[in-house]
Amino acid sequence: MSPTLRIAFRFLTAKKRAMLMSLACIILGVGLFVVTQATTSGFEDFFIKTILGTNGAIKVEDRIQDTLRSMEAAGGGTDSKFQIAQKEGRKYIQGIEEPQLVMDALRGFQNVAGMSEVLTGPAVLRSSFKSDSVKIYGIVLDNHIMVSELAHQIVQGNLDEFRNTPSGALVGKYNADQFQLSVGDSFILDSAGQSRRYRVAAIYETGVSDIDKERIYLQLNEARSLLKKPTGASFIQVSLHDNDRAPEDSALMEEVLHNGVHSWQEREKSWLSAFSALRISSAITVSVFTLIAGLAMFNTLAMIVMEKTKEIAILRSMGYTRRDISDIFLWQAVIVLVIGTVLGSLFGAAATYGVSIMPIRITGIFSTKHYIVAWSGWHYVAANLTAIVMVMVASLIPARRAARFEPGDIIRGTSG
Amino acid sequence: MAGRRQSSRNQILVSPSLSSPSSLLPSPGGSPDLALRCEELHRYLGAGEGRVHVLRGVSFAARPGQVTAIVGPSGCGKSTLLYLLGLLDQPDGGAIWIRDRLMSNSSDLDRTAARCEHIGFVFQFHFLMLEFSALDNVMMPMRKLGRLTEAQMADRARALLGDVGLGDKTHRLATHLSGGEQQRVAVARALANQPAIILADEPTGNLDVRNSTIVFDLLTRLAKENGQAVVLVTHNPDIAKRCDEIKPMRDGEFVP
């Protein structure tokens, strides 16, 4: 053990209560940082999972019709010296006329994991006592379960019934409750001037209230017939191997396909920004504890420096350098910091576990019955780094002050 | 001289004197026979109208094995001279040699290294580290010098504490020792690195007559046994009379 570390250990006992206060602040600061990041990240990750599980990573939608202005801005030919992407002046033609061609083109993208063409249209769901507007989603089931979590969202019934029954429908739990529908019950859908009876093959719940109260899944051919749209698709839902590359892939797809392509990050930008702001603001807020820890350490070390001036003088007279004196006080901060960050991380982990089993009922943009947490090593890294920076910066000032003491002045002042 | 030297407890210790970088070559004005030498030292304290000329051209030399007492009234500059000789302070004029090496114009690091290796201090107030045991206090300068293993340092510290009559109290915390015992630990600590020079500022000033005699006898006996120069500042005429040389001081100068 170095001589300065040995001395630092003993000096720590000089101000036990004050050091314990700094230690407590570090533990709280690190622990609370971890648990707040775990919860905010947890909810954010769950929201992203819900989004990807319902609306997919990428949506290929309306076709872009180039206007003269947008073509001029894009330059012409391979010898163009410049190219300006210009969205102003574009026209979008609703829907996809040749979905199979688009899907063939999409297969050329390495990151694409699955594709599903979807046909949508408005309808009215009618029962004996109630009617309400809904949106028809015509899907090919086997394709659609590749681009969504539909298979895991079934809460009653099963998808085989839907697959095997042309007039089968998947109804959201909200609508099922509102219309008092169970699996096997029938209901009427009115659309495009016709009425048809369908049977509930299964009931699903995504947790997203806008989806659960609006969407009725039908087989694609049945939807075409009901909506009188024999060709084309409203959009193509795409799943990716690496969802984080969705923005880059969608930009490339838009260039290649000349269709509007929207990544999940673009579609949910406002919610994602809100989650990010919440995560950052909670980190800043709990960092106050760590800031207090730094101030407490500054105060404690400053007091120890004032009380140990004679010891500093005698150490200097024995041959301890200014750097040694500074190290003695910095070591004290390091010792408290090491203990604090370890205990703080343990406290953070325990608190995160405790929060994860706390019940809470949230519906809206997603649905959950308990707190959702994300377990990530980076939360602990960020928490500990914050504590280290704040405490060590605060400790530098008293440590450097102690190093600047002149032994002669101190000894002269204490001699009789 | 370089080589091996017997300590009072028959421990073989390497002399630190010429093996260290800080005492390699003699510098102009130095003398190989002297442990310490100063010439025309001046020191001012305070500032502005309160500035005082504390030392007025003091010259002094100390030989190995010699005990010198500096005596004089309060405020005559005795302690200031001692702190300059101990490189705890820097003169405003003049030169100081420690074992042939000119130290008065050297860097803070060089002066600190010289204090570690060549100078031992005993102050009026023991200045022990109260959170540490007697053994740890004596080992502290040895740990900084870093020439011995932990076991060797502990052995030497125990031997020194035995020499000062505290062999059975090595593990007692400094705060649990009496005033006389604490000062004896301070003496042992000052001798820990076998320095060439021991500087003592009123080492018996806080002790009763009996302990004063014990501490003084220990300090001088051990220093002479090890060939160390002792320079002590004292108000005590009985102590001064027992030294090899007395240097009376008044108004910042030695008086004949």
Features:
heterodimer; A: 416 residues; alpha+beta; 16 helices; 55% helix; 20% strand; B: 256 residues; alpha/beta; Rossmann fold; six-stranded mixed beta sheet; 12 strands; globular; disordered N terminus
Quick summary of this structure?
The complex is a heterodimer of chains A (416) and B (256). Chain A has 416 residues and is an alpha+beta fold.
Q: Tally the helices of chain A: what do you get?
A: 16
Looking at the structure, what is the overall shape of chain B? globular
Strand pairing plus helix content of chain A: what structural class?
alpha+beta
Using only CA atoms, what is the Rg of chain A? Answer: 32 Å
Q: What overall form of chain A do the CA principal axes indicate? A: elongated
Structural class of chain B: alpha/beta
Helix content of chain A: 40-55%
General description of the model:
The complex is a heterodimer of chains A (416) and B (256). Chain A has a domain of 194 residues. Chain A has 16 helices and 13 strands. In chain A, a hairpin with a 5-residue loop joins strand 12 and strand 13. Chain A is elongated, with a radius of gyration of 32 Å. Chain B has a domain of 177 residues: Rossmann fold, CATH 3.40.50.300. In chain B, the strands form three sheets. Chain B has a six-stranded mixed sheet, sandwiched between helices. In chain B, strands 4-3-6-7 form a four-stranded antiparallel sheet, with helices on one face. In chain B, strand 9, helix 6 and strand 10 form a beta-alpha-beta unit. The N terminus of chain B is likely disordered. The chains are: A alpha+beta (416), B alpha/beta (256). At the A-B interface, helix 1, helix 13 and helix 16 of A face helix 1, helix 2 and helix 3 of B.
